[in-house]
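Section 5: illustrative case.
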C-alpha cells in the first residue's frame, strides 16, 4: 500500500533531514519507487543528496504549488541514487507566505503533488519538513497524513515534541487524518539521559510508536550498540559528500535500523515485539 510521510519536529538539528534522506534511500533499496520532497527553505536535504545546484533553479516547487497553469511536478523532479527528489529553493520564504495567505494554500501540496503521484508514479513519498511550526510544516502533515518524529535524548527535544502534539498534530487531527507513525530517538551516545527518556517514552501514550530498535531491551543486549539511531560521524560525512549513508558506508551498523524504519513505513505501524521476534527467526532460519 502506498504511503506518504512527513519527518518533522519543531526543533532544530534533531535529525529530520538525516532521517528523511536515509528513509527515502532505504525504502528505495527495498524495491519501492520513492520521492523525497525537501520543503525546508534551508535546503539541507537538497544539499545532502547532491542537488544544491537546484536551490537557485529558475523553476521550482513554489511555481508548481502556487501557479494555476504552472509547471508540472515532473518539471521539478530530479533523480539521485535510487530515488527521486523535489529540491528546495531559496525562495521558499515567499512560498511560505503564499501558503499562509491563500485560503486553500494549506492543501496545495496535497492536491498538486501527493494526490496525483502517490500510488501512481510513487509507492512512497517522504517529506523533509522545516524546523518551525509554520504553514509549510502544517501543509506537509496534511498532505502526507503520517508523521515520523526524530528526537534527541534531551529535555528540549522531548518538550518540543509535546508542544508539537498539542499545538499542531491534535488540531490537524481534528480536521483530517494524521498518524504519528514512529518516534525515532536519534544521535544517542550512551549518556544517562537516554536511559531515562527511553523509559519515559515506553511508559507514555506513545510507547506503541517506539520502534523495537529504540527500546530499553537494547541496553541489556551485549551485541547491541544500544537503542535508537546512534551517534555516528558517518551521517554527517555522508551528508557532506551529498550521498545517503548506504552509499557512504555500506557496512554501517545503523543501516539495519533505518531499514526497520522503512519497514514501519511500509507496514504503516511499528511491529510489536512478538512480530519482530518472529521476523528475526525467519531471518535466522532463512
Ligand atoms: N545519528 C547521528 N549521528 C551523528 N550525527 C548526526 C546524526 N543525526 C544527525 N546528525 C548530524 O546532526 C546535524 C543535524 O542533523 P539534521 O540536519 O538531520 O537535523 P534537522 O532536524 O534536519 O535540522 P534542521 O532543524 O536544521 O532542519 C547534521 O550535521 C547531521 O549530519
Ligand atoms: Mg533539516
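Designed sequence:
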Amino acid at each position: 500500500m502506498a504511503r506518504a510521510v512527513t519527518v518533522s519536529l519543531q526543533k532544530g538539528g534533531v535529525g529530520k533531514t538525516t532521517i528523511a534522506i536515509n528513509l527515502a534511500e532505504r525504502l528505495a533499496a527495498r524495491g519501492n519507487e520513492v520521492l523525497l520532497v525537501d520543503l525546508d527553505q534551508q535546503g539541507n536535504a537538497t544539499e545532502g543528496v547532491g542537488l544544491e545546484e537546484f536551490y537557485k533553479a529558475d523553476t521550482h516547487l513554489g511555481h508548481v504549488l502556487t501557479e494555476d497553469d504552472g509547471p508540472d511536478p515532473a518539471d521539478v523532479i530530479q533523480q539521485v541514487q535510487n530515488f527521486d527528489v523535489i529540491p528546495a529553493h531559496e525562495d521558499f520564504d515567499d512560498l511560505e507566505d503564499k501558503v499562509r495567505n491563500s485560503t486553500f494554500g494549506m492543501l496545495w501540496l496535497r492536491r498538486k503533488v501527493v494526490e496525483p503521484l502517490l500510488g501512481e508514479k510513487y509507492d512512497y513519498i517522504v517529506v523533509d519538513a522545516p524546523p518551525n511550526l509554520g504553514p509549510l510544516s502544517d501543509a506537509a502533515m496534511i498532505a502526507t497524513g503520517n508523521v515520523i518524529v526524530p528526537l534527541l535524548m534531551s529535555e528540549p527535544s522531548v518538550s518540543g515534541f509535546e508542544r508539537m502534539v498539542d499545538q499542531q498534530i491534535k488540531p490537524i487531527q481534528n480536521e483530517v487524518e494524521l498518524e504519528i507513525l514512529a518516534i525515532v530517538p536519534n544521535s544517542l551516545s550512551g549518556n544517562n539521559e537516554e536511559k531515562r527518556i527511553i523509559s519515559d517514552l515506553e511508559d507514555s501514550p506513545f510507547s506503541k510508536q517506539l520502534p523495537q530498535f529504540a527500546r530499553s531491551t537494547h541496553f541489556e543486549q551485549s551485541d547491541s550498540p544500544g537503542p535508537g539511531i546512534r551517534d555516528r560521524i558517518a551521517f554527517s560525512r555522508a551528508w557532506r559528500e551529498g550521498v545517503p549513508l548506504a552509499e557512504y558506508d555500506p557496512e554501517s551498523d545503523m543501516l539495519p535500523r533505518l531499514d526497520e524504519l522503512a519497514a514501519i513505513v511500509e507496514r504503516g505501524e511499528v511491529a510489536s515485539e512478538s512480530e519482530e521476534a518472529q521476523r528475526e527467526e525467519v531471518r535466522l532460519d532463512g
